[in-house]
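Input.
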Amino acid sequence: MRAGKPRVFVTQPVSAHALKRLRTAANVTVFPDTSRIIPKPALIKAVRQADILFCLLHDLIDRDVIDANPDLRLIAAQSITPSNIDVTTATARRIPVTVTAPLTTEATADLTFGLMLAAARRMVEGDRLTRAGKFPGGQSAHVMGAYVWGKTVGLIGGGGLIGKAVARRALGFSMRVLYWTPRRKSEHEEREAHLTYVPFEQLLRESDFVSVHSPLNKETRHQIGARELRLMKKTAYIVNTARGPIIDEAALVRALQKKLIAGAGLDVFEREPKVNAALKKMPNVVLTPHLGSAVPEVREAMANMVVDNILALIGGHKLPNCVNPQVFAL
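Output.
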């Protein structure tokens, strides 16, 4: 690393406390706009002048970005997984990549349940009507929704932390909680989390709400497609707070247009930051811009964990959350 304090580029404003800690050991530059993802040309230009890149989940750190600076010393992501980082290229360049611990469980479970409620009870439609000066009346059938209380929720890939957190919330609504995962949990875990294991297709057929919690990999890309959507009830809703490409978005649009399912709540999208134009026009679809971890306590903890990783590198210590530690042996 060059003489003097290392240069760190941060792709969007993060926790003020975390940045203060970072500035004790580094010269820090921050892209100032929280309303948009940094454009790729600006990111590449900034990386050329940095020793360390502090990036966020939504930043695409591909070969072009990594190749922009052969002297880049670290890619430190404020993300639980490096899904938007070309780790293979980084490893070939001997650049360590770090992530954070799974800190988003409860915040993401809150949002999952919020999307279920908003879609089923047509809250966004009601909000728009009210703002437009329309008030059909307290017992009007104009914006009839669906019960959440007492219904069945099916958690796909739901044996993990977020799935279990959603299950805890569902219990408060007297819901039956089904789950499916490729590796079934122990009877003790199922009993403790109030989860009932069923085969994948049975979950789709019986659930009033299908909630996606799978990790994104080759096996789960388009895990929910036209066939799976046809298996769902026509009165069912699908919710996705995991990763966008797990659902075949084109198939989802067709299923919604044909009224094969009742609606959807989506926090993630197949081609983020682009959102399918048809989805944006559908009143029975609730859309949020990847807000799963968007609460101050979570973002504070995540940013400080990124800083921990960066300070470890600067101090010559072992990186706490490195996904490619083999770079140190190359």
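Residues 222 and 248 are 5 Å apart (CA to CA).
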